[in-house]
Protein 1
Amino acid sequence: MLNLVRPGRNVLSHLGRRLYSSQSAVSFDRTELDSDKIDFKKYLNFNHEIVYNYTKEEIDVENVPTHKTNMCGAINEAMRHAMEKDEKAVVFGEDVAFGGVFRCTIDLMEKFGKDRCFNTPLCEQGIAGFAIGMAAMGYKPIAEFQFADYIYPAFDQIVNEAAKYRYRSGNLFNVGGLTMRAPCSAVGHGGHYHSQSPEAFFAHVPGIKVVVARNPVQAKGLLLSCIEDDNPVLFLEPKKLYRLSASTVPDDAYYLPLSKAEIIKKGTHVTVIGWASQMYVLEEAVKMAEEVGIDCELIDLRTILPWDVETVINSVSKTGRCVIAHEAPHTNGFGAELAATIQEKCFLNLEAPVIRVCGLDTPFPLVHEKYYVPDNLKCFEMIKKVVNY
Amino acid sequence: MLSRVKCIRPLTSAKRFYSKSELLTTPKYPGAVNAKFTKDLVFHNAVPNEPVFPIFHIMDLQGKIINQSSYKSVRETLDDDTLVKMYKTMIQLETMDTILYNAQRQGRVSFYMTNYGEEAVQIGSAAALTETDEIFAQYREAGVLMYRGFTLEEFMNQCFSTSKDYGKGRQMPVHYGSKSLRVQTISSPLATQIPQASGAGYAIRLSDRKDVAICYFGEGAASEGDFHSALNFAAVLKSQVIFLCRNNGYAISTPTSDQYKGDGIVARGLGYGIHSIRVDGNDPFAVYMAVREARKMSTEKHVPVLIEAMTYRGGHHSTSDDASRYRTTNELTYWREQMNPIFRLKKFLTNEKLWNEENENQVRDDTRKKVLSLLTSVEKAEKTHLDELVTDVYDQVPETLKEQKKFVDAMAKKYPEAYSEGH
Ligand SMILES: Cc1ncc(C[n+]2csc(CCOP(=O)(O)OP(=O)(O)O)c2C)c(N)n1
Ligand SMILES: [Mg+2]
């Protein structure tokens, strides 16, 4: 049975609770799991209706011409729209001409010609630098890194060049037209170098934006906004989602807001925050929690940098509890930034420590992937934990 | 032979894209289409008097020795037994590749990369090395390991992440490594091993060793910045390193025509002051001799050497790739049927009476049986223990990580079915 402090609690009740539980406030031991178990098998073929939701105020899917497509198709469409709209939009990267190793750039070379969609030599540093140069000339390069795990040779160009181009020149120059795409995150068998989620590295770099999408509708609208945005943007694509079930996507171009988190399920007991493919895991965890009477508010952060503090703070102020989950390692993952800001801004409303459920502080493993990732059961257990705190 | 090829992808009858006479005499390696053959083993330190760097060879495209003097020199250090061992390794490699490729298609292993078409460059070079040379490889060099003594069981333990995998099941299949064979563990990020090999070759020189570090990489990887810094460092710092580029015409779908405009990889060596040579990578004698002489030069003069071995990637890039999307059946047929380095050496050995069909069938059958039986055993074998999830990140497991591991253990204890195999 749950003994929840109702939302809207006052400071006194909060303080009383803190005194009462001061021991565990010091060390929040994650190994002490609740004895209640859930039948996890129910969630093996789970229908992710919440993750496939969209906010009606942001996008109209009902009254416009639509079609079904998966994430890969949606990303391809976004690039096609951008290239149709603006002659200066150009797509390139390793193996991009034949459609890309994930088929996201398929038909773009045929449609727009070899000058606007082309293979580059195999060099990420070159891809980023080349893209920056084009952007400096007023073009809209859309550069593909074959895997986010292989973006590091381009780190210098992204961190020291793209991110600082405007600031260091006093806005004489900028590379706002630059968009970089990279497939990221776990797929079940990727090991160290086909599984990484490097968002936190880039979240430490003022001057670039970092955006991630959770489904086809989001991917198309967010990528179009990234291309349109007048700042260099890194668009991370959870490659596990490329071929997942299709959803209904508007035929035309549309734009979803950057730096705006989305509450994809309202709730009262605990705020649960994630992004990218982790949203699927979290939806399952949230449904598990519902079974035991916990009503979660589920937030997709969508833009990692600059992030939507307001939506997160309002939610946690209301619920008083928060669980953040991401695949990247725990220490210094982007969850750390969220947790720090939440405790700064919501201190008096918090009923429990903010909890992060993350990848371990190890390289991404192959054979033990399922133990490494913050799966639905870990997230569920931690949701219970913050609620029972 | 053909039936094995067919299980990869059905080949239509070969309608060649070059004329027949050209086909028999002229090299058509996509990485240097206009290069001519040469019988002179020259490590260039200046641009040759030809428009394109020539390709050193000893055996023609039909497996006949056409370069007697070099052949003689090769045979001074390469006896019959070694030659037969080289060929055996080539067909063992091909047999293992075919079974593991198909195992991936059947969902029995998550991923695989074949070495088809590049057996001669791998094994010809391995045969010219000593046991104490240090290997820095890319990923398409299983033959080098195999020749040095990496067993079928060791290959399979890695691919199936068993508890006997030296890498403790942490990396994808084909990321082999062996301390005893001096093969640094493979890493997927391309070209990173090239400057590392320069550093190793420098350390080897400082220790007065008569060894080299040999670094294998693809022509695609040679576009990375790491390649260029590696060559410059090695030249300036007099590193005992051999850079061996496998120019197989493709980097996944990207043909060499989209990779570089210059004369392949060999021409780049000169810019850094490195003696450089281009060899027929499908001619095991030429590869052997080039590596043997490069070793000699490197260990005696304390310099790096660059070898560009022209070859052709005979299979898909990996099991995640479908090469029919970017190359024609005709092209593939030409390489797999006409230019196959295994056929070439087999013809030669058969003519020399060093090999016959009976030997062939026996080695292939034995290998097939061995790999198939290993396949069932490694599938059932115990995987690496969960405790290894957190070891080796550092020499000691940090406290924070120990705590994270406790949580994992508690979860596994609470939900054993969820974390057991099959879920
Ligand atoms: C830094 C980096 N970028 C991209 C990749 C993805 N990738 C893996 S293999 C490959 C092609 C390599 O081609 P090449 O070096 O010619 O070797 P080959 O596969 O032909 O043997 C690419 C692009 C990678 N592994 N590392
Ligand atoms: Mg290649």
Protein 2
Amino acid sequence: MRLITLNATVTASNDRDAAALREKLVSRGTLLVNVMSAAGSGKTTLLSRLIRDLPDVKIGVMEADIASDVDAKTIEALGAAAIQVHTSGMCHMDAGMTAAAVEAMDPSLRLLFLENVGNLICPAEYDTGAGLNLMLLSVPEGDDKPLKYPLMFQKSDALVVTKTDTLSYFTFDLEKCVERVKKLNPAIRIFPVSAKTGEGMAALEAYLRERLAALTEGTDHA
Amino acid sequence: MHEMGIVLHLAKTLDETAEQEQLTKIGRVVLQVGEVSGIMTDLFTDAWDYFKGRHPVLTESTLVLETIPAVTWCDNCKQTYETVKYGRECPYCHSGETWLLQGNECVIKEIEAE
Ligand SMILES: Nc1nc2c(ncn2[C@@H]2O[C@H](COP(=O)(O)OP(=O)(O)O)[C@@H](O)[C@H]2O)c(=O)[nH]1
Ligand SMILES: [Mg+2]
Ligand SMILES: [Zn+2]
């Protein structure tokens, strides 16, 4: 037997799969958005709202869930393309599973959302190959979450603070939350929204359009 | 569940290495696991035993786990301390402006193979 020094992170093979998927999607002009949050933070509700607010954009949704298919039915009822991905007990989506799910979607979709499994730990550790990592934190969860789950805040390009219509019922200090998050990730974009009242949705939608345009520009000049 | 995912990726990385290096048999696998990586070693070993039976090059392998101690940096008083002992708050100045320097990783250090 010989000794082989690897010093590779366990997820090295996942990182390679993720890079390959990212490249493929960019060349096809699809922005894959990895949506991460705890269970019940409002992912499905936010995606439903975005589908209604952006009728001119071809949107698809991949709903990852450990077992059920309720979320995919909700999305399909709005007329968007949706599939349910069962993770068979796994607490996160990895790049291989994401690539397989993407295969099942119409390649002409422009904005493809992956609703990741609801938890703040494992999804942050696996690169899915997404072009944009979007994290949700809902007001009822509290403003101390950045202190408890720093990795996800560090890995995300944007944070959507959801359910802002409930701010008056909870002791959630938005300013303090922003300060904590920026300390972990100075480049992160933060969007406080209420998918219920529509407050703040325009800024988030403009950001998504901007990222989509940047992606297409990138391919045109490539 | 978390352990299962990690083992799955570990097995895949080792399969790929075996193909690249044209290995037929992998013996010892040394894995460095951070003290606060959240990996439960018992669950991990169970998951490993299950998966190694399904990967031909791994059937005779043994897993060696090495712990990487968790160390936190205090940005206020500019020194380090043991994370597990003191947590998020700096034991010297009680500041909360602290960052984990190491202890969250999971790295395949080396393997013995032929
Ligand atoms: N008040 C309020 N409730 C919301 C909002 N968004 C979602 N919810 C509620 O939060 C619960 C969980 O939402 P859901 O979208 O299923 O969360 P998911 O598990 O992250 O997909 C549901 O009862 C929603 O009606 C919001 O903006 N305001
Ligand atoms: Mg949902
Ligand atoms: Zn200190």
